[in-house]
Amino acid sequence: xxxxxxxxxxxxxxxLISPLDLPLLGICGLLLLLAVGVMGSASPERIGSQLxxxxxxxxxxxxxxxxxxxxxxxxxxxxxxxxxxxxxxxALFGDISKGARRWLNLGFMRVQPSEIMKIxxxxxxxxxxxxxxxxxxxxxxxxxxxxxxxxxxxxxxQPDLGTALLVLAAGFYVIFFAGLSWKILAGMALxxxxxxxxxxxxxxxYQRNRILTLLDPEKDPxxxxxxxxxxxxxxxxxxxxxxxxxxxxxxxxxFIPEHHTDFIFAVFAEEFGLVGNVVLxxxxxxxxxxxxxxxxxxxSLFGRLLAGSITMIFFTYAFVNIGMVSGLLPVVGxxxxxxxxxxxxxxxxxxxxxxxxxxxxxxxxVQK
Amino acid sequence: xxxxxxxxxLGKFHxxxxxxxxxxxxxxxxxxxxxxxxxxIQYGYYQTRAEDNRISLVPITPSxxxxxxxxxxxxxxxxxxxxxxxxPAQIDHLERTIDDLATVIDIQPKDRxxxxxxxxxxxxxxxxxxRSRLTDEEVAxxxxxxxxxxxxxxxxxxxxxYPKGAFASSTLGYIGRITDRDLDKIEAIDQEANYRGTxxxxxxxxxxxxxxxxxxxxxxxxxxxxxxxxxxxxLARTAPVPGNNLTLTLDAELQSIAEQAFGDRKxxxxxxxxxxxxxxxxxxxxxxxxxxxxxxxxxQSWKVLNESADKPMVNRALxxxxxxxSTFKPFMALAALAYGKRTPHQTIFDPGFYTFGNHTFRDxxxxxxGTVDMYKSIVxxxxxxxxxxxxxxxxDNIARFMAEFGFGNFTGIDIEGESKGILPSTDWKRxxxxxxxxxxxxxxxxxxxxxxxxxxxxxxxxLAQAVATLAHNGTMFRPHLVKFITDSRTGVRKLIEPQxxxxxxxxxxxxxxxxxxxxxxxxxxxxxxAFAGAEYVSAGKTGTAQVFSLKGxxxxxxxxxQELRDHALFIAxxxxxxxxxxxxxxxxxxxxxxxxxxxxxRQIFDYYLLGKRPKAPAAVDEAAVERDDE
Lengths: 368, 630
What we know:
The structure holds 2 protein chains of 2 kinds.
Chain A lengths: L3 H14 L4 H21 L4 H20 L2 H25 L1 E3 L2 E6 L4 E2 L1 H19 L6 H20 L3 H18 L3 H21 L2 H11 L10 H13 L10 H4 L11 H34 L3 H25 L17 H25 L1
Antiparallel strand pairs in A: 1-2, 2-3
Chain B lengths: L6 H35 L1 H12 E6 L6 E2 L5 E13 L7 H9 L6 H13 L6 E4 L4 H10 L6 E10 L7 H4 L2 E3 L2 H9 L11 E3 L2 H5 L1 H4 L4 E7 L5 E8 L6 E4 L3 H10 L5 E6 L6 E7 L5 H4 L4 H9 L8 H4 L9 H10 L9 E3 L2 E4 L2 E4 L7 E3 L1 H6 L3 H11 L1 H10 L21 H7 L3 H4 L3 H7 L10 H12 L3 E3 L4 E5 L6 E3 L4 E4 L4 H17 L14 E7 L21 E8 L6 E7 L5 H4 L1 H13 L20
Parallel strand pairs in B: 2-10
Antiparallel strand pairs in B: 1-8, 2-3, 3-4, 3-5, 6-7, 8-9, 10-18, 11-12, 11-23, 13-16, 14-15, 17-20, 18-19, 21-22, 22-23
């Protein structure tokens, strides 16, 4: 009896962590620690609520990790259909905020259906290709492309170019990993290039401005270029070792816009310098590397495709956000994964992490 | 769900993973290169830009130097007053804020206009006055409502003040808001940085001439500002250095007495200390209150000053050019001695007129002065003597001699915009006129120059300088108003050295003859009534300058309109044996010099030499005349 209590605790603890991939959890833990540190400089008053978001996200991660890949596959179609339904709902009855129709009020809560599609899209396509494993034909890729373009088109119409591109990328990664031939990929790339001028004409003015601003931010230093100019000043003035935690003048004096959300990287880079940036990239690199290992070792096509595309979604978030803040890419609303403030993206990302863990655990079960 | 193992498909997936991995690596390398570019190679540039972002230099305006008279009486100082100021960078709706403010504190349309103008000229982060000189009540009213007006505050600022009001106005000058023309001057000597934060600039008089001495050195506060332009904290402060103080040669009490002596008459007076050239009084009447200009004169007052027929804005002492009339005669006599054209005792006979060619020049005294030597010619102011003398000397000799005394040239006084006047000569006429007929000098024109009429026109300051030079036996000084400048930081005095400009080569005996004759003027001549009973010996000469030619008709000044009456002049120095003061007085349309100008000189001398204060403005001595027989 004396040892029964610890034994019970140990057993319970074992059950709790058994579906978790410890290396992945460790890397995410480090990123979350870093996130709390940066938040302590960028917006200390938000640490509390972000810790709550993190706890919620970790719980959801644990729940998802506990599901089997088969169970994940089984919800692919319903989730996708619900997502599409909500997107149509947004287009018809959505709330307008900042000139875009993105939110849907369900009476008891407001949801942003485009966020659901970030996970629903790779899930559905992985399921779809898994169904066609035996005889994958070109027509299947066309069907996949159609399944992808419907939600992307709906999101683009909101308009929310950033999310549309992320969803498009998520779906594309599945198609890419499914083995679409290089010839067709090249053809698509060429078509995309050729279509660029046409796409340009469909872009909203503010979207065009963002691209033009990227090309020459100094042209309009007080207007559209202000964000990029101030964030590059912040990064550049950080130098090699940074100005020190809470010592970044650009951040502390609020020259950096959105400094707790999309531009939080500028705060980090100003205060921790090149050294900090390399550490952050290394953490992301480790996360992506672990994701690739999980994908490579996955025992089903569904698992491989889902793991590969989720991993690439992490990469895309990180690269697009850092590229945008440091002035390499146009400004699109993409958070810095696991670091930016905000519950929605954190939950979405940890659902992805949970899926990776689920896929990895199923491999071990198969091996046993 | 069926789990399949397809080695071929798996291999293909692994190769795709490798491609994706390679792509990830490539992108991350790209990011690292970007970081290296921003954080290593361009570090210095971005470091500077970040500093520029956060640090704002806020100028601290120095207090303007004081102007005091020779007895340390303050003539221009500064006082602190409350202004209501708005920092536009901190306000979203400026118009609405001003509308709201107007419900608390009286804000006139002209205040709004002025604020708008300031706003257009201002740089960021500056607070700009919407109202100045708030009363205590207004300050209290605003402070109670301050929470409603972020970005609006009451500040204590220094304002220029001229404690004596309408006093020595054209001498002290005034300051006003900086204009583009002032900016040109500031840029010309690279003082832009020092004038950041300065609103005012010397416009006329000493305020203008000594602007860069009076201004001081602007201090700076390094303030850390946030993106909204709000000051977060002060990083460093460089204190401003107040402007240097001017100590004048001017005697404020004497100046006051002189101004009051004019009553409501127009004119000018310049009193100089002959041994230094220091100006004791510099009067131009009517004067005005320079305080009106400090904060931007309102259009109503400006209209009154600018459009007045009395032209108070003209500095008559420096810019009014008047024929010297008979005050020219002592200098003519001295020229005669110097050129050997007359001896002191050589006499002429004056029948009351002088005929040159077929033109007759009349003497003021009917029947003439009879036998006249040099002494009598000055004491009685005999015109005929000088008609003859002028003809004997010739215009160019006269011009050469008078130029030595500074006639027709800038005196170099430390006030800007002095006029040159006209010293007529054949050369002058050739340059002045265009047609050959007009360019020729006619010998007949020389005759009236001899009695200070004709083309002659000199400023009162030139006349005063000439008298002072004569009093000081030919040694000439540059007239100056500032005795010394005190460095506000070190207390070191920078003396304006009374360096003699030159010593005119004159025979002391000749000078003595002229001085004796001028003593005679005040003892038994045209100045005798004004100086009756004086406890000191003074020397003088009356003069009357024609404004309106009567073409030979009798001059009866009561029957002539005020503005057509002659100008009254008087030059004098005292005590005659060791002159402490020399002066020139001009009363516009005052009539005879003996009537209007000499009594003013008497009041000045009485105060300066004896400390006697006059009880009333100098009375016009109706009985005194230019000639002692009328």
